[in-house]
Specification:
The chain is an all-alpha fold and 90 residues long. It contains 3 helices and no strands.
């Protein structure tokens, strides 16, 4: 039987880092829900889905609209990770 080591880490963020982490959650959830709703809309229309490359392009395209200005302060690497996670979920 092969043994696997397990490590536990505890981060101790500064007050500024903690504020950024708290801010991250709603952005990620909002982007997830936005991409999911677009996937559902497309599936109902023509039975297709968005995959990661199309999601990443869509995020970039949406940033120019004022309605989606809340996406601008969100880190692009985090946005891409949300898109990858949704792609994996599908």
């Amino acid at each position: 039987m092969e043994k696997t080591l397990r490590y536990n880490f505890r981060i101790k963020p500064t007050a500024e880092q903690e504020a950024k982490l708290i801010e991250f959650g709603p952005y990620a959830r909002g982007l997830w829900n936005l991409l999911l709703s677009e996937d559902l809309r497309r599936y109902r229309y023509d039975k297709t889905f968005l995959f990661y490359p199309e999601m990443a392009k869509l995020i970039k395209d949406l940033k120019v609209f004022e309605e989606f200005s809340w996406l601008k302060p969100f880190d692009s690497a985090a946005e891409q990770q949300v898109a990858r996670d949704l792609d994996t979920a599908f």
